[in-house]
Amino acid sequence: MTTTNPNETTPALEELSVLDEALLVSDSQRALAEAIQTPLKYIFIAMAIPLTLCNVIVFSQKDMRSASGTYVVGLNAGQLFYIVSTTAHFIWAHFVDPPYSQYSFCVYEYYVTIYAGVLVAKRASYAILCLASAERLYAVVRPLHVKNFVLSKHPVIGVLSVYALSAVWHVFHLVKYRFEMMNIAALGYSVCRFFKTELYLSHKDVNDAFGSAARICLTYISLLIQLMLNVLTIWALQRHNMAARQVQSTTKEDAKRQQERQLTVTLLFASVTYVVLSLPAALLQVITTTVPGVTPTGKYRNLYTVMLDFGFNMSMLGCGVDFFCYLALSTKYRNAVFRLIGRKTNKLATNSQTTLTRTDDVTS
């Protein structure tokens, strides 16, 4: 469900230009896109939450703990918070009628969904993925020294540092607006209105600079670095395979090398998929920055809504598809999942058998 901020007015459409013809989306086209994308949104959310949670649980198991596993847990934990906070916002918005008539809803949307979910958690996930890819690249290039690599020795510190940096970097967002309930006579009800704070207005240039720097560094540059690391990892894997064929090694060394290679390929495939599916949302940020009118209430508001829904759906798909990448490409991950399911199944069977025994004792 897309809500519209009542504090913004909709400008009248001007005469069509070449740009207008390329970017204008009619109301009927927007309605058709929403009819297709809204069901997909809830399908992808319903898929992403349990699969992302499964990744966190599996990689937290004792036999799956490693530097790469820690980065995956940190990445998926942020994704899970982003998905849950956004889903709660959708559900809450569905029951807020009229929109923005509840003060608590506005506070949740601004501080939890936007700040903590979108700005801090989601953008930090891009940087964490870069750390995981850099660690895997080093493991391929210098396998004998990877244990001494800083990203391999202190993955927890790396993950926590990224989240802390993202939270501090976006702190300007916390002081940008204040909320106040106001009665709108024309509407016949009270709405929560957003007013820019004196602190923000007195340091507007600094705050805007922080916002632009966060968007560029944590989104665009992170995605670009991720692409470069993936290309270098593919090159390093090919070179490593050629060198391995020329060196005689024991069966134990071959097995260990194969396991490391499988882990690297799995994380490589998962990261490439995640980056590709994150591009539509990143593209929307570029368009809203460079093209005036691509806003929720601007001239190209229909295009904004369609691209926003599409980018969100691809982000949800990217959060859920990691599970299938790990399941298809990693034997160790599959075994861990099957063991986890087996333990839960055995525990349920044991509890059921105990309940039946106690019932028999009582009735006998």
From TrEMBL:
SUPFAM superfamilies: Family A G protein-coupled receptor-like. It is found in: Membrane. Keywords: Membrane, Transmembrane, Transmembrane helix. PROSITE patterns: G_PROTEIN_RECEP_F1_2 (PS50262). One of its GO terms (cellular component) is membrane. Coiled coil: none annotated. The chain crosses the membrane at residues 42-59, 71-92, 112-134, 155-172, 213-237, 265-287, 307-329. This is G-protein coupled receptors family 1 profile domain-containing protein. It comes from Batillaria attramentaria.
